[in-house]
Amino acid sequence: MSDRHSGDSNRSPTRSRVFRLTTIAASGLGSFALALWAVRSGVGGIDGIPANIVAGMIAALCALAASFAAMSFFAGIDESASWVYRETQFDKLTGLSTRAAMAGRVAEAATGAIGTGRPVFLLDIDIDRFKHINDTIGYSDGDRLVHAFAERLKEILPREAEIGRISAGEFAVLIPDRPDLGSMDAFIGRIYERLTQPYQLPSHLQSVNMSVGLVAIPKDGTEPVTLLRRANLALQHARGGGIGNWSAFHEQMGRVADYRQWIESELHVAFRRGDFELHYQPQFDLSTGRTVGYEALVRWRHPERGMVPPGEFVPVAEETGMIVPIGEWVLRKACEDARFLPQDCFVAVNISPVQFMTRDFLSMVSGVIASTGIDPKRLELEVTETAMMQDRAHAAAILDALSQMNISVAVDDFGTGYSNLSYLVDFPFKKLKIDQSFVRRLESDNNSGAVVSTIVGLSRALGVRTIAEGVETESQATLLKAAGCQVGQGYLFGKPGPLVMRDGRLEPRHDAATVH
Ligand code: C2E
Ligand code: CA
Ligand code: CA
C-alpha cells in the first residue's frame, strides 16, 4: 500500500535544505558584519593585540554563535514537527496509526482503488465491552491487553495491511483484495480465532470477544469519514447479532443506526414514565412434569412504537449504563411479584454483566430482599459466563456472598462463552443453563447432542443442576431428558406472559403449545 512514513518533508520551505543553508549562512554573515562594525567603532586593542585582529575574532565568534542559533532553531522545528507528527500519526501504546492518520490512509486507498480498479477492504475490529473490561481490570492491565491485541493483529495480517488504532479498544485495517485472501468469512475467522485466545496479564488470564464490521472501497464509498462510519455501522450490526460476529455494510444499516440513537435517547424517558413491565416464562421439571420456577423477562411497551424487544434495547442500556436502574427495577418487581407465583416456585432474574460488576451490587440485592420480604431461597439470579470472567476474584467473592445469603445463581447461556471451564470449580453456583443454540440443533446435529450430554455430565460432577432453554418440540424435550437434563424452558412448556387477574388474584399467563 502507501509508503506510510514518507512524510512531506520537502514541501514546507522551513524544512528544505537550500532554505536552511541560506538562512544559516545569512545569520552568520549578518552577525559577522554587525560585530565588525560595532567593534571597529567602539573597542581599542587588548593587551597589545591590534584592534582590527580583536575585532575580527569577536566578529567570527558572533558569526559562529548566530549560525549555531539558526541551526538549533531548525533542529528545534524538526524535533517539534516530528513530535507533532508522531503524536498525531502514531498511537503511543501500539505504534500503530492513529484515527487521524488512518483517515488519510483510507483516502489514499480510495484513490488507489479507483485508479487500479482493485477493491480495498476496510475492517473495523472492536474488542467487545472494552470500556467495561478496562474499568474492571484497571487501566494499566487494560493497556497491556490493547498492546497484546495489537501485536497479534500485526502478526496475523499480511504485510501490506495498514493497521490503525482508532479508539480505545478499536482497530481499523485496510487490506487490498487479493486472491490468496480467500473468502472474507475464512479470513475474518482466522483473525477472530487468534485474537480471542485468552491474554496472559500479570494478575490473570483475560478472555475477550470481538466484533468486526467491513466495507469495500470504492463500492461502499470513497470518502474516509463516511467509510469509517459505515464500517462502524456494520460492526454495531454484527455486535447486535451476538458475540463474535462480523457484518459487511449495507444501505439498510444507516437506518438501524438512527433507531439505536432513538433507543438511547428514549430509554431515560421510558424509565421515568414507567414503560417497563415483566413477563414470566415457566421452567418445567422434565421428570415430574411440574413447573418449578419462572424466569422474569423485561418488556418495554412504548406508548407510540409498541413493544421494543429486549434484544434491541438491553445492549443499548448496557452500553449507556441505564441497565443499572432498569435492572434494579426488574429485581424489585420480580421479588414483589413472587407472591403471585405458586409458593413452591422460585423466580429467576437476569443480571447483566454491567450490573453484576457494579460496586454496590450486593447491597442493592440485600436491600431489595429486605424491602420486598421475599424468601431469598425463592430467588435465582441468571448470570452469564461473560459477567463472571471479567474479574474472577471479584466474581467469586460476589458469588460466595450470594450463596451465604441463600440466593442461588444459574450460569446463563452456558456453552457460548469460554472454552476454559476451570472457573466452574471455583465458583459457587447451583445451575447451568444450556444455551438455546444447542437445543435448537439437537435433532439435526450430533455435536449438539454431545455438547448437551457433556454439560449434563459436568454438572453432575460439580453437583449442580442443568436446565435447557429454548425447548420448542417434544423430541427436543425427550432427547434432553434422555441426556439427564432435569429442567426445561421454552415455547413447548409456555411462552413468556404477563401476570393476569384470574378469580380476583394475579397469576402468570403463558400460552403453552402443549399442555403437560
Ligand atoms: P435470555 O436470558 O437467554 O432469555 C431467553 C430468551 O429466549 C427470551 O427472549 C425468551 O423469550 C426466549 N425464549 C424462551 N423460550 C423460547 C423458545 O422456545 N424459542 C425461542 N426461539 N425463544 C425462546 P427475550 O425475552 O426476547 O429476551 C432476550 C434476552 O434479553 C434475554 O435472553 C436476556 O439476555 C435479555 N433480557 C431479558 N430480560 C432481561 C432483564 O430483565 N435483564 C437483563 N439484564 N436482560 C434481560
Ligand atoms: Ca436468562
Ligand atoms: Ca439464556
Question: Could you describe the 3D structure shown?
Answer:
Helices cover 50% and strands 19% of the residues. It has helices spanning 17-42, 51-89, 99-116, 130-137, 139-156, 184-195, 224-240, 252-273, 310-320, 323-337, 353-356, 361-372, 385-389, 392-404, 423-426, 436-440, 446-462, 474-483; strands at residues 120-127, 162-167, 170-176, 199-200, 205-206, 210-217, 246-248, 276-285, 291-302, 306-308, 346-351, 379-384, 408-414, 431-434, 465-469, 487-489, 499-502, 505-508. The longest helix has 39 residues, at 51-89. By secondary structure, it is an alpha/beta fold. Strands 8-9-11-12-13-14-15-16 form an eight-stranded mixed beta barrel, surrounded by four helices. Residues 1-15 have low confidence and may be disordered. Helix 7 packs across helix 8 (252-273). A hairpin with a 2-residue loop joins strand 17 and strand 18 (505-508). It binds ligand C2E and calcium ion (CA) (2 copies).
